[in-house]
């Protein structure tokens, strides 16, 4: 519950910080060189830790995209071997001759050791990367879209629409995200798609709160009032004027949340929820490896380190972006 509340508080703090650092006159000026993705990237390049995080994140997504395409194409063409042409070995092949062999430099496949069934830990980690990357992107993108529609509508229209939408949002926020996701996944059944749906359902409420706060801040601005007086429709005001002013803080929030989604997805896999039998997942590998600690310590350690590395990189980049957006950093 505390973790879920902290996500909401961070989003509201981001909106408040941005409001405090921009004067009312400056807010009337269209977004220019001092905002947007290009502005964020410019300053992140000057920060070594953030730059390192961006490089790791970029490599993670590039590899995940290429590997994911190979896996999909291989499955469609019934040429499954395409899914591991970039990997040191077949991550699904059982070979008890390699059972629980410790990490060594004998081959690239043996670099992180083998599990009980003789499958390379490194190959399994790389094979699972596309599903974690896809989960992060789809869940965050879907949550932003749903939260944007609900939050901006509630903040701009007000009245009964605000009450209904925010009460529904509060109902979702009343439950810890991980428990609600577990309950939904159990009710809907096993499978990757089911887990994604469960995560989307529990992930959008904080975004709705954030977009509502931003809309309440913007709707009384002079440019919004002028747009209303000129006869521009409410839908166009919301899409063309209010939404663009939420882009900067949403970049920071989404960057942090990508790591949170991967962590939550891995937690569900660790608990055995939504698993596809025979398909490696970072969380399930960690769970399976715990049964062999300390003898085969590498089985649980390296998948856990993969999760930690990706999540920490997202946190570093997201925190730095949030500092820039909130005006706490300048170069």
Spell out the blueprint of helices and strands.
Elements: H1 2-21, H2 24-27, H3 37-44, H4 48-76, H5 121-157, H6 159-173, H7 177-188, H8 192-203, H9 205-218, H10 222-229, H11 234-242, H12 247-270, H13 282-290, H14 297-325
Helix pairs in contact: 1-9, 4-5, 4-14, 5-6, 5-8, 5-9, 5-12, 6-9, 7-8, 10-11, 12-13, 12-14, 13-14
Quick structural summary:
69% of the residues lie in helices and 0% in strands.
Descriptive labels:
331 residues; mainly alpha; 69% helix; elongated; disordered N terminus
Describe this structure in words.
Helix 4 crosses helix 5 and helix 12 packs antiparallel against helix 14. It is built from 14 helices and no strands. The N terminus is likely disordered. With 331 residues, it is mostly helical. 42% of the residues are buried. The two termini are 37 Å apart.
Assembly category? single chain
Q: Give the integer mean of the pLDDT values.
A: 82
What is the succession of H and E elements? Answer: HHHHHHHHHHHHHH
Coarse structural class: mainly alpha
The separation of the N and C termini measures: 37 Å
Shape: elongated
Query: What is the count of β-strands?
Result: 0
> Per DSSP, what share of the residues sits in E-state strands of 2 or more residues?
under 5%
Sheet with the most strands, sense and barrel status? none
User: What is the count of DSSP helices, taking H or I runs of 4+ residues?
Assistant: 14
Helix content: 55-70%
| Uncertain stretches of 5 or more adjacent residues | 1-5, 15-34
The Cα radius of gyration reads 22 Å
